[in-house]
Amino acid sequence: MRAYKDIYYKYITFAMIGAILIGVSAGFTSIDKRILVVALAVWLVGNALFWQFLAIKRKKDLEKLLDECKLADYVDSYEALDQRFPKFGDMQSKADIKLNLAEGLYAHGEFTEMKRVLDSIELRKSTDLKDLVQKVSFHNLLALYYIERGELGMAEAELSECYPLFDFVKFKEPKRSQCLESSEIIYATLQLKRGELEGLDKKFRTWMTEVSRPLTKVICSYRLGEVYTNHNMTEEANQQFNFVVKYGGDSFFAERAEAALKIKGKHRPML
């Protein structure tokens, strides 16, 4: 809830108003004080649940933008959240906003701005589940940045920071498997850029089938198209690039896939 300044402040405001009204009632009515205590508890819990529900709904709406590859809208939304975040808000919520913003900037192809955001992130030293997830996300995103810059050694170094984190007892399922899969996809991308192609077509096809997140499907399809291109499998590559153009929205993957199809002179929309 603290990630959304407007919702958080409304939660605090209504909690205080309710508490004050019930407190005033205690002094001016003959109602049993135990009833008022129960009423206060019910109000505080109900108020918290209501605003928490709105916060969850807003987060899901933002995730939908990412899933639909509406990256410009997604980035704009998270930039606004980042700018409005309370100056003295908690570090974990702040990092969460910035990591989501960095992910959107990456998919939108804004790599320099992505690095600036990552450089501004402060992660807690805790090993609680959410902190572990944030650490993996941070190193994964840095690895993607370095892959785009062609600094493959730096990318591998960032990925090497992820794998020891999966051994922590607090890294519970299903988050552990989800984060591990993300790291594995990025490592396969690193292998692709190094020309280590053996088995990559099978890996990316498997991920295309297994992952549920539309953006991840687009990414895997694009990488699979790159693998096929390296194997001179033109028709297979075109099929993947067409998929990316159709479902990739305003991601840089769709832009690059469209450029690849035009170069080949075989840019045909999927039916």
Report on the architecture of this protein.
By secondary structure, the chain is an all-alpha fold. 76% of the residues lie in helices and 0% in strands. The chain has helices at 5-28, 33-67, 71-84, 91-108, 111-119, 129-149, 152-162, 175-194, 200-210, 214-230, 234-247, 252-264. The model is unreliable at 266-271 (pLDDT under 50).
List keywords for this structure.
271 residues; mainly alpha; 12 helices; disordered C terminus
**Terminal residue distance:** 43 Å
- How much strand? under 5%
Quaternary status: single chain
Given as residue ranges, the uncertain stretches (5+ residues, pLDDT < 50) are 266-271
Reading the helices and strands in chain order gives: HHHHHHHHHHHH
Shape: elongated
Total strands: the figure is 0
Mean pLDDT across all residues, rounded?
89
Helix content: over 70%
Give the C-alpha Rg: 23 Å
Query: What structural category do the secondary elements indicate?
Result: mainly alpha
Major sheet, described briefly? none
What's the short version?
Helices cover 76% and strands 0% of the residues.
Give the topology.
Elements: H1 5-28, H2 33-67, H3 71-84, H4 91-108, H5 111-119, H6 129-149, H7 152-162, H8 175-194, H9 200-210, H10 214-230, H11 234-247, H12 252-264
